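Continuing from the previous page of notes. For each protein in this section, the sequence appears first, followed by its structure tokens. Read the first protein now.
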Amino acid sequence: TSCLVAAILAISGISLGERLSFEARPGLEVILVVDVSNSMLATDVAPSRLERARTMARSLVAARPALAWGLVAARGHATLLVPPTDDSAAMDEALDFATPDAVTSPGTRLGSGIRAAIAAPQAARRIIVLLSDGDDLSANTGAVAAEARALDSPIFALGFGGATPVPVSDAAGQA
């Protein structure tokens, strides 16, 4: 499976190494879909899954600040926090708001995040990067991924979390 992922990344212009990097292409937009569900608050990876995802998002934007970047926060539903922009400072600031409080609907429905990324205003070819622990409670994620594929918007998923299951707490920290 890891060979397949590496091959897909190589073909898409993404390279792995000390940092994940997108090849700069004119007219390319990247929408980051950040899972802000309560399971992302788990601290099995320090300081938390969510903070690791936001750090990775910041690294991606910093690596290619000239690209148009957008941000979606996904939980039970999703919200577009930043439409595609080349303002990397706006993206950095918006990532501070990518928390469970950004979306009021509980649960995890990653398909809603992908759909919000598809629906965002689009002026160019779009890549969707999903940052999640993969704890998806919806049944429609595959169908939404097929919609993205039909629109020539590939999805790359970056996973966060440890190998051992951890209890999921509510927003008050109660398991």
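Done with the first. The second protein uses the same format. Note its length before scrolling.
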Amino acid sequence: AALHRTNLPQIRIAPGDAELQRVGGAFGPGVILVSKLREKSLRLSAGGAGVKVLLYEGGEALRFDEQAIDAGVKGCLRVMGATGMIADPPRKPDLPQTSLSTASSWVRAPEGGILHTIRRTGDRVGQKEVIGVVADPLGVQSTPVVSEDDGVIVGRTNLPIVNRGDALFHIARVKPVTGAKSRTKPEFADALYDEDEII
């Protein structure tokens, strides 16, 4: 993730590619984000050369996050197994069903102050659910931080002091991939944001 933010281990794939979705599912992430290709990006250039790309994101900038590293290494080995490069890849983790997202949004600070988070990265949240509180330094006044959508928290700020309008929680609107019953709204068509687009 960007500085002072953390990301849930996740895979991003180009839209409209069933093979990428299959291989992304083999990786075993909690969430697969279908994300448009950006101009001058490695994913766009590779796609133009006929190379399919899975983009893995996880953890926090400038830190070794052992869980994100472990998820990345084992996910790569499972992708290698799914594409016939190796035998006996690691088993998929005993996690909830991988979810597919075609849209996400950032919940921003309604006021400046001290952020107290209630929900963590990876948590499922409901529309209108309180996921944090911004309080003044003396704790006299507080303003709830409310999720605008049903989804999964795939990123959040690590800074305790926030200004009005700062990006706090990144929520991917999801539905389960293949098989599991959906507890959320159908897919949405608007674009996902990259880290450098939300500051």
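What the second structure shows: DSSP finds three helices and eleven strands in the chain. The mean pLDDT is 86. We return to this in next week's lecture.
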